[in-house]
Design brief:
Helix content: 25-40%
Radius of gyration: 14 Å
Number of strands: 6
Structural class: alpha+beta
Largest sheet: 6 strands, mixed
Order of helices and strands: EHEEHEHEE
Oligomer: single chain
Shape: globular
Strand content: 25-35%
């Protein structure tokens, strides 16, 4: 049987009912955090890529906090970008404020659109859970 536990940071309980997904799942020693866009808590999306990126990483941080770990536990990062070439440098500038060395594996993918209207970036991560056995 699969070892699986849902992780729900405060203010994200509606994801399961409204969208049919968990914000994060812990399974077999890893935390899988669903893609986070730069959508504000009121549902609006700023037009600035740097602000969107900060919001996305802050949303990821809430799941990491709930799991009792930090960004140093990341092993994989996947980012999806509308206008990848023209916005990647600004994304990387913000990313570097959150992701410490030893850097996780990272894949950046250019897409034509994201689920949240006006979203320019979505970030999903996998982290190693910290358990004292």
């Amino acid at each position: 049987m699969l070892d699986k536990k849902q992780i729900y940071p405060k203010s994200s309980e509606n994801y399961y009912d409204d969208w049919g997904f968990s914000p994060a799942i812990e399974s077999n020693g890893f935390i899988f955090i669903s893609g986070c866009t730069g959508t504000r808590s009121d549902g609006s999306v700023p037009s600035d890529i740097e602000e969107q990126t900060h919001i996305a990483f802050q949303r990821i941080k809430k799941s990491l906090d709930e799991a009792g770990i930090g960004f140093e536990s990341l092993v994989d990062l996947t980012s999806y970008h509308v206008g990848l070439g023209e916005r990647l440098e600004k994304f990387m500038k913000v990313k570097s404020q959150y992701i410490p060395e030893l850097f996780p594996a990272w894949t950046a993918i250019g897409v034509s659109e994201l689920a949240a209207k006006g979203a320019l970036v979505e970030v999903r991560v996998i982290a190693r859970a910290q358990h004292n056995h």
